[in-house]
Amino acid sequence: MADSTQMEVETATKPAAPLPTKPIFKPLKAHEMSDGKVQFRKIPVPPNRYTPLKKAWLDIYTPVYDQMKVDIRMNLKARKVELKTRHDTPDVSNLQKSADFVHAFMLGFDIPDAVALLRMDELYVESFEIKDVKTLKGEHLSRAIGRLSGKGGKTKFAIENSTKTRIVIADTRIHILGAFTNIKVARSSLCSLIMGSPAGKVYSKLRNVSARLAE
Amino acid sequence: MAAVKDSGFEALEKLKSTEPPVFLAPSSISEVARAASQYLFTKLKPHNPKSPFDELLVDGFDAEQIWQQIDMQSQPLLSSLRHEVKRFAKSPKEIRKIGDLAVEASHEGDVDEMDMDDDNDVEDDDDELEADESEGEEEEEDGEEEEEDEEEEEEEEENEGIEDKFFKIKDLEDFLEEGEAQEYGTDYKNKKGLSKGKNQNLSDDDDDYDEEDEEDEDEDEDEEDEEFGAFAGDDNEDADNLGKARYEDFFGGKKKETKRTMKDAIEDEEAGDGNQGTEKLSTHEKELLKLQSKIEQMEKANLDPKHWTMQGEVSATKRPKNSALEVDLDFEHNARPPPVITEEVTASLEDMIKSRIIEARFDDVQRAPSLPTKSKRQAKELDDSKSKKGLAEVYEEEYVQKSNPAFAPATFSDELKKEASMLFKKLCLKLDALSHFHFTPKPVIEEMSIQTNVPAIAMEEVAPVAVSDAAMLAPEEIFAGTGKIKDESELTQEERKRRRAKKKRKFKAESANHPVKKARDTNTEIHNTGNE
């Protein structure tokens, strides 16, 4: 069959319908992320922070509701602060940040210090106990706590100011709020104080380190 | 056996006939030598019943091995010969008995000597011939030197003090005679007879033997051979003296001196003999003698080992102790020698010092200027008090400083700096005003301050001297406008309308700037309503 010298070319049948264009979705809102379900956070309130919470409620409420766009309420019966995402919460992390902020307040930090958690990403809270560092009992423990704070709290303030952190000494627990490296420095100075080094030694170390941190 | 003997004899003859240089080159002469040595060996066999070999085995044997065989045969032979000699020494009568034997033996001795003529430098034959020589000598001594012994013993008795088994004056003289004969070509044999003197050689054979012996020794360049021959000659004679070896025999101090004197005597003799033999020498001859002696001295110096200073690199072990002290050694110094302090030197120094003091030009060491140190970093003071700013504000300030340094609020240190700079400027102004001739007024610093329209009395002293209610503000500041002011009742309709329109326009402009406020929070409203 040499009718045609040319190759037989089958004309490809046209596709039935043109392929649909790739869909473009807008990024999910926090509200929609978990299939439209609402996310909650519940933070218990220790009894000693009950009255301060009442006093500083509006200072907590305003930034969380207005800037973070997260619903916040106090459950009096359960003695918990509850947080909930709204439909217009822009980012998922807002809820968590707000939770951290409230938790920091419960630990004992002041509002102006805790607000930094809302505003900056890289701030963390670290907690440890004195007995983690050194087993102390009775008077030794009391003396250690006294050494940590210093007269009128000056040692604690010195550490706070030089390392740009905030420290809360609650009986045998110690909480530090700040950036990661700053927390490390503050922790090391606190540990050296617990172990028994005099305040002067800690000051000199802080001077050196703070200069380096400031760079 | 006869045929072998003949062949052996022929071999010996052949050896004798060959030229000495032939022995030096490896040639077939070795075969001949081997045959000859075999022949000799068999000849001596009957005298030595104890030897283990019937004949000398030479086929395929090394020179060393052949020599060993000969040695094995000769050792017992030597001892037996010594024994025989002793016997003859005790009873000379028996010698005559062996006289006939000796004549026979002499033939063989001759034959032996012939091959001794040959040069012993050939390696293969050297050892053999030495042995042969010694054997031959031993054998001869057995027969013939017995006769000489007596005469030599006489000589010995005379020279006992000097001679021992190592040294024989007779041999020394003989050697010297040979040397002379070599040099001057005198009739050696005649000399020999003269020097020998007392020795009466009974047979020609003895003479031949002696001559040949001496010739051998002469031709032999090895002194060892000569010595060996001398020893061989002395061995039997001094067999008795062996047991009586003394220290003097080995290390006799006397001997050396006497040896020297003997040598001198011999030399004088030689000199005398060498020259015309006259006692008085001519000047030329004297000069010659002097030259000779000088030459000898120089030759001796050349031959002796050099003095240690001329030996090149010499370590301490190679030179005698403390010998370096005696020699004036010269070597290069790396450092300059210390200056010699003389009066002139000290005088010059003192002059310099005096002049320097007068000039006051001291070369004091000046402290090197230290490098410009970096300005001390502002040591951040540790703030002990509670910080007034919250943590958020701290970070805020930090961020602002990083991003936009212009708008950063002044830090505490900046404020202090500002205050300080202000104070200094004021001071400078005052000082300039005092010091400058031309007056410069105070610079005007624009400052803003709020003034309230409060009567002056309120702002001033509590108890005023005079009461005055002058306003703080000037009348222009109170009211700024033209003088024409119309009352309400005086306005016309159009003026009223104009006034209203102006008012409305004003109100609209204001409302546009401030938009309507948001509606209030519904939650609280609802809550409130709920409560209600």
So what's the oligomer here? heterodimer
Radius of gyration of chain B: 71 Å
Q: How large is the count of helical segments of chain A?
A: 10
Name the structural class of chain B.
mainly alpha
Q: Largest interface, with Cβ-Cβ < 8 Å?
A: A-B, 28 and 18 residues
- Beta-strand fraction estimate of chain A: 15-25%
What report would you give on this structure?
The complex is a heterodimer of chains A (215) and B (532). By secondary structure, chain A is α+β, with helices and mostly antiparallel strands. Helix content of chain A is 48%, strand content 17%. Chain A has helices at residues 30-33, 50-55, 57-67, 92-107, 111-119, 130-133, 139-149, 154-163, 180-195, 199-214; strands at 40-44, 70-75, 80-85, 123-129, 166-170, 173-179. Chain A has a three-stranded antiparallel β-sheet with strand order 1-3-2. In chain A, strands 4-6-5 form a three-stranded antiparallel β-sheet, sandwiched between helices. The relative contact order of chain B is 0.04. Chain B is elongated, with a radius of gyration of 71 Å. Residues 108-124, 136-152 and 193-235 of chain B have low confidence and may be disordered. Chain B has 23 helices and no strands. The A-B interface holds A 110-113, 115-116, 118-120, 123, 153-154, 157-158, 160-162, 164-166, 177-178, 203, 206-207, 210-211, 214 and B 377, 379-380, 382-387, 389-396, 398.
